[in-house]
Amino acid sequence: MARANRHHLPDCIWHITHRCHKKEFLLKFARDRTRFMFWLLEARKRFSLHILNYTITSNHVHLLVKDNEDPKTIPSAIQLTAGRMGQEYNRRKGRKGAFWEDRYHATAIESGEHLRRCLVYMDMNMVRAGVVKHPADWAFGGYHEIQGNRRRNRLLALDILAKATGMHSPETLARGHREWIEEALLMEDHQRNEAWTQSLAVGSEEFVRKVQENLGVRGIGRSIIERGDACVLREEQKLMGAVLTPKIEL
């Protein structure tokens, strides 16, 4: 279960990952993934959460979200979604114990090019896992909605996503999104990139330093590492190739 909010960075986009307890495949059936989507929709309605993308796998979820300037929006939305999902599953299965890892992980993502890369990274999740050959083949993600193929129970704030990625409208976003995905498929390099899932912030040096400063004492001891044309805010003592588990609560 996600714990209470302790820090809020206004007008920021977050890539959130939340894993099932002990990485168990508790979301392996379509029924359970559909229920997660139902509660995600409820969270959007109740808390005015801006959902920009999502991917639901068999043992973890990815969310790309932005709050509505209320510091309680994101933690309240995740508490509802994760809590109700776990309660329903345990009741139906006659199961006891935690459904989720203790805390979700959140990475601040800079708008523009870095956000576009994160968007594609999320969509390519099940391709990396070898489950599908194209994001369009996985029903439990934001790909189809970004492409305008979903008419009911829509989750995504496409106007906000379009603006944040530098596109003029959801229509131009859809065209650009198709091109970004095709380019990623042609590269045939679908390795897991811990920058999106294990760091505290990804973006330009100016953006990452701003996040570090806004974290206050929680930013002390963190290192800013250049990775390609992006900067990453990491734990000071960790190496880029290591298995990292820094945690941040929004």
Poorly predicted runs:
1-6, 237-250
Which homologous superfamily in CATH is the superfamily? Transposase IS200-like
Strand order of the largest sheet: 2-3-1-4-5-7-6
- Cα radius of gyration in angstroms: 17 Å
Beta strands, count:
7
Structural class: alpha+beta
- Beta content comes to 15-25%
Gap from first CA to last CA: 14 Å
Q: How would you describe the shape?
A: globular
Q: Look at the structure and give the CATH class.
A: Alpha Beta
Number of helices: 8
**Biggest sheet descriptor:** 7 strands, mixed
Fraction of residues in H or I helices: 25-40%
Q: Classify the fold: give the CATH topology.
A: Alpha-Beta Plaits
Average pLDDT, rounded to a whole number, is: 87
List SSEs in N-to-C order.
Answer: EHEEHEHHHHHEHEE
Give the total of domains. Answer: 1
Describe the protein's architecture and organization.
With 250 residues, the protein is an alpha+beta fold. The chain has a single domain, classed as Transposase IS200-like (Alpha-Beta Plaits, 2-Layer Sandwich). It is 37% helix and 16% strand. It has helices at residues 30-47, 73-93, 113-123, 125-128, 143-146, 158-164, 170-187, 205-214, and strands spanning 13-19, 50-56, 60-66, 105-109, 201-203, 222-227, 230-235. It has a 7-stranded mixed sheet with strand order 2-3-1-4-5-7-6, sandwiched between helices. β2 (50-56) and β3 form a beta hairpin. α1 packs antiparallel against α2 (73-93) and α3 (113-123) crosses α7. It is globular. It starts with 12 loop residues before the first strand and ends in a 15-residue tail after the last strand.
